[in-house]
Amino acid sequence: MTTTAKNYTRRDPVELHDVRENARKLAILYTVEVEIARLAGLWLPKIREMPEKLWLGRMLYEDAEHAMWIEKRLEELRVPPDLVATFRTRTAPAFKAMEETDDPELFMRGLLLLVKPALLADYQRHIEACPPYVDDPSIRFLKRIVEDEKEHLAKGLSLLASRASGHALPAGALWDLSARSGDFLKGQFVGQEPRPQPMPNWPQEVEHLPAVAPMPLYPGDFKGDMQRVAHDLVFSELEAAEIFARYVYEYHQCPWQFHYEAARIAWDECRHVELLLNVLDRYEGRVGQFPAKAPGFEEFMQLKSPVERMIMVSVIAEGEVSTDTQTQHRDAFRQMGDEFSALLKDYEMADEVSHGQFGERWARKFCDQMGEDYDLAYENAHAALERFKAQHPEAEGESAIPLVRLGADEAGEKRTINVTAKRLLGYSDERIRKLVAESGGRMVEEDTL
């Protein structure tokens, strides 16, 4: 006779939850994770400090991923997808207070001193009530979530320790795992009526210029020009992270799969910021050394059509343009002998392909869902982007450094088309030939293995 690896006597069967109770509690935890991810999407552009922004970027993705895991398990526990969707249309008073405040201290203290500790405790209680064997799928991902939540708290509390003390939200503003429906406010949720934000908030030491303002001349020497280039790239990636954070906060009509993928992109962009901060540091530059602008974020917030916003950012800027410019940045670093920066940029370019695939996939789904013509929406988004670009001045100053021309302004003969990336995005041969012709025949094909 063999012995089993687990011992049922370690738990009281009376305290174990059945399928129905398991699903009920997981549904409550699902709502909490969704609301926290939405709040992170709101606050990533609002909070000023760079360490907090980068921490929120990772937390945003991981909490969105937690919700995705729970959603999958709920469906396995026989909860219909239509019912799961209703769990994203309720909230707790604490979450609405954290959405409506403009005080970053209240948000941080509410999140770290009230919400996250209560959530961690509920997860641990839920794991203790999971029956062995039959509910191992829940236990497996719940243990991973617990570890993530502990890391969120550890990092977040270290950041909170450096901030001014203030009042936290009252404990009565939370959810209740023991209540039948979690004691949520039904029909209300974070992002139901998104709070506008024309420009992101950046570190106090950064002179944040509007998109229409001229930028200063490049310093004119190699070291100074490289510092300026790296500084520009840091804030180009930061505004991208802030845009995709808003995707998670704003697009509540979408399935959670959309928010999960958008949250991953926001985290990707935060990691790009970190790699470029490394580049800036290696060229002895510092954040705030130069002014910075967020033209992409400004235009994103000005466009009214949700489809055109997505096409402008995810299809044109991320897929059509950035897969080329990131390739050029990588190759330019190699020309300068900076192989480490080139290596980092190569990973970043790989991310841009998946970002463009996200845009192509979801923009077309949106058009189908809303009864809009994709080609017309693309033309409108492209025209809006060109109008906006015409309003803000190009960078001035000459430099021998090939990285001085940056981002979506690269066009015509300044642009090299990455044909391999375009094929991965699903572009037709005709569309690729048109792009190559517009670039004066400049193209590159790469081996992916």
Automatic annotation (TrEMBL):
<protein>
    <recommendedName>
        <fullName>Ferritin-like domain-containing protein</fullName>
    </recommendedName>
</protein>
<dbReference type="Pfam" id="PF04305">
    <property type="entry name" value="DUF455"/>
</dbReference>
<dbReference type="InterPro" id="IPR007402">
    <property type="entry name" value="DUF455"/>
</dbReference>
<dbReference type="InterPro" id="IPR009078">
    <property type="entry name" value="Ferritin-like_SF"/>
</dbReference>
